[in-house]
Design goal:
The protein is mainly alpha-helical and about 350 residues long. The protein folds into three domains: about 1-50, GCC-box Binding Domain (2-Layer Sandwich); about 65-150; about 180-325, hpI Integrase, Chain A (Orthogonal Bundle), CATH 1.10.443. The protein has 14 helices and six strands. The relative contact order is 0.07.
């Protein structure tokens, strides 16, 4: 280590934090300071960070990030509906980042990884090269939740390494819904399908606001007393939605009480194509749920009741439909500067 005063009065710090190299490269620090005290303080700071390894009881943690992901999955991920999906996403990130040790992951490493994903340099499939900012925000959320959970489980003693990484600002996705004429056109095509289930699955989605997979898992026991019950849903919130007697009487009755519906998603896709509906990407069957919610609010429904019907965990999700209410921000019509003028001076 060397701290020397220079001819200009400044102090030069010149040293190798990990010792002088012997046949291999070693990091060297050369930095000038106004005072000798500043040079000593900086030197102590560097040496303290190198010598201090608070990973596990004073021993350096050599676990790979992938190993922690697997441990998280065994102890917590298995309880989540999308646990396997999260695990696969994080394992792909581990591979793409060069299989780092857990304590090597930091904001810089993750930021470089997501920039490559956004540019298409790293891709999980041959079909989709570039990903959207929303996809990377979801991966960031996965990793943040992962570190928070393993810390609660006692497998991590440091701070969350991605706590300072900010998600991208992304535009709110378009929520397409069907007008009455489009609904009739779609149901007519569903009725023509060779799959007998697609017609009434689509109708039940429109009547209850349920997701397609929730309706496909319906059995006779879940439709009782003019009510449809949904269990093991996406938000893990059981809910029951009433239906009219006329609609109940129109539903086909399964041969066996526990019989569920056979998958008819592909038949629905073909019906949408025949109906010539122009839907945003990723909103094929979900357009039925959006249609229910949009018409519910246009018909002066209560936003809190809609939250319960849809099974949303947070009202923020339901507020996406608030603008469909007839009186939503109606004062903008009366109070804009072209309509609302001050009284003329007499």
């Amino acid at each position: 280590m060397s701290i020397r005063k220079q001819p200009d009065g400044k102090w030069l710090l010149d040293f190798y934090p990990e010792g002088k190299p012997k046949g291999k490269a070693s990091k060297r620090i050369r930095k000038t300071f106004s005072t000798k005290g500043d040079a000593l303080a900086y030197q102590n700071h560097i040496m303290g960070n190198i010598n201090a390894k608070p990973w596990l009881d004073g021993k350096e943690d050599r676990r790979k990030l992938r190993d922690l992901v697997n441990q998280w999955c065994d102890e917590h991920g298995v309880t989540l509906d999308d646990g396997e999906k999260r695990k696969g996403t994080m394992e792909f990130a581990c591979e793409s980042m060069g299989e780092p040790l857990a304590h090597q992951l930091n904001d810089t490493t993750f930021s470089l990884y997501r920039s490559k994903r956004l540019s298409g340099e790293i891709s999980r499939t041959s079909r989709v090269k570039k990903v959207s900012p929303r996809t990377m925000n979801l991966e960031l959320a996965y990793f943040r939740a992962f570190f928070n959970q393993i810390k609660r489980l006692g497998h991590w003693k440091l701070d969350n390494p991605l706590s300072n990484v900010h998600p991208f600002k992304s535009e709110e996705a378009e929520l397409a819904y069907l007008e009455h004429e489009e609904i009739d056109r779609l149901l007519d095509e569903c009725k023509k399908s060779r799959n007998d289930n697609v017609f009434w699955v689509a109708r039940l989605c429109l009547v209850t606001g349920a997701r397609w997979d929730e309706v496909e898992s319906i059995t006779a026991k879940k439709i009782r007393n003019l009510k449809v019950s949904f269990f093991k849903t996406k938000g893990n919130r059981n809910r029951t939605v009433p239906i009219s007697k006329d609609f109940y009487d129109s539903l086909p009755k399964p041969d066996r009480p526990g019989c569920s519906i056979k998958s008819c998603y592909s038949a629905f896709r073909k019906a949408v194509e025949r109906a010539e509906l122009n839907l945003p990407d990723g909103q094929l069957s979900h357009v039925l749920r959006h249609t229910f919610a949009s018409h519910f609010m246009m018909n002066r429904g209560n936003i809190l009741m809609l939250k319960n019907i849809l099974g949303h965990t947070h009202i923020k999700m339901t507020m996406r439909y608030a603008h469909f209410a007839p009186d939503h921000l109606e004062e903008a019509v009366r109070l804009n500067p072209l309509e609302h003028k001050p009284n003329e001076i007499k």
